[in-house]
Design brief:
The protein has about 425 residues and is of the alpha/beta class. The protein is built from 14 helices and 16 strands. The chain has helices at about 5-25, 30-45, 45-65, 70-75, 80-90, 130-145, 155-175, 190-195, 210-220, 245-255, 270-285, 295-300, 335-345, 360-365; strands at about 100-105, 110-120, 120-125, 145-150, 180-185, 205-210, 235, 265-270, 290-295, 310, 325-330, 350-355, 370-375, 395, 405, 410-420. The strands form 4 sheets. A 7-stranded parallel β-sheet has the order 10-9-11-8-7-12-13. Strands 5-4-3-6 form a 4-stranded parallel β-sheet, with helices on both faces. Strand 14 (about 395) and strand 15 (about 405) form a beta hairpin. Helix 2 (about 30-45) runs antiparallel to helix 5 (about 80-90) and helix 6 runs parallel beside helix 7 (about 155-175). It starts with 5 loop residues before the first helix and ends in a 7-residue tail after the last strand.
Length: about 425
Amino acid sequence: MTPTDIPAYMAHVGVAARAAATAMAASSTAARNAALLALARRLRGDTAALQAANAQDIAAAQANGLAAPMVDRLKLTDQVIATVAEGCEQLAGMPDPVGEITQLKRRPSGISVGQMRVPLGVFGMIYESRPNVTIEAASLAIKSANACILRGGSEALHSNLALWRLVQAALAEAGLPPEAVQLVETTDRAAVGRLIAMPQYVDVIIPRGGKGLIERISAEAKVPVIKHLDGNCHVYVDAEVDLDLALKVTDNAKTQKYSPCNAAESLLVHEAVAAQFLPRIGQVFAAKSVEMRCDAQAKALLAAVPGAGLVDATEADWSEEYLAPVISIKVVSSLDEAIAHVNRHGSHHTDAILTTNHPNAMRFLREVDSASVMVNASTRFADGFEYGLGAEIGISTDKFHARGPVGLEGLTSLKWVVLGQGEVRE
């Protein structure tokens, strides 16, 4: 089936994915682990061929004037290939979540009732730039006994095709259906429109990319979407705090890397410690050329910091995801005000409190309505690998099914199981 007739092509892909999902759900843990180990071996063995395909994408991207950071994201370096291969091996060594029965309880009637973890079925993933995502998504699909349909960015087509062929070869080697992982072989945007509107074939869509892509998918999909739109993450420095710890954590949350969705974008500081803390963190930010968009109190306390880039914050700044060396800073009068500010302006992604007051920490954990809430730790830890999930396929700020970093368990569902010995209802 060639990808020229998009409706027919996508229907063909969907039918094959649904059939493969049935086979994957019935497959053994050993077979799926064997496929992951075979994939790791093939990635390492085919590095030269992968990089030759990748070179075509890089040359085209440079010829088309793609920005240097985007070109950099495209590269399949030796390190990138080694990392995804290692990720496959790590997944193979992790416990299999599928088939696990939990919460099994004996009822007065004699039956035992519990919940079994089962694969979602077929997930579609739409992503941009990074070809390593092809392997991350494929390996998570294999381990969780799902089938997946992948649609990468047009700028990485040759790289993704080369990687996908290794995935299919590894599946076949392990006796699993190669159609368990399919790559949409066309750059036609109409294929995306079809993929997100095939509930008969696709159980969930996972977009991974810029806000524009995710907004489009969320608006047009006829299939449930696991997503997050923004990462406006907050650090709140409480009235009772270890100032050295607060300095270290705030610096890391903002400046360790500016572009991820879990980097801090907003800093709230209690007025009781603002005069002590803000000049210190201001010096750190000034040295790293981080622009500070401040309310009046914060700006006054930062005014004496040499070289500080100070800007008056607008109302829009409190809700902004900068993904850049820019941070909004506000002085608050209480924990209540901090929590209210986070819940109003945050994106429900990741927020942290820095405090030595245990009751305040527990209130922040309970009352901040975000997918990840932290005490005395950098927001940069909001990541599937750091959470011990082995890998993540994305971050969810939704409240149904998966929330926060989505790893293996996020690609499964629960069904009720009842074990009996001939009981009948009276």
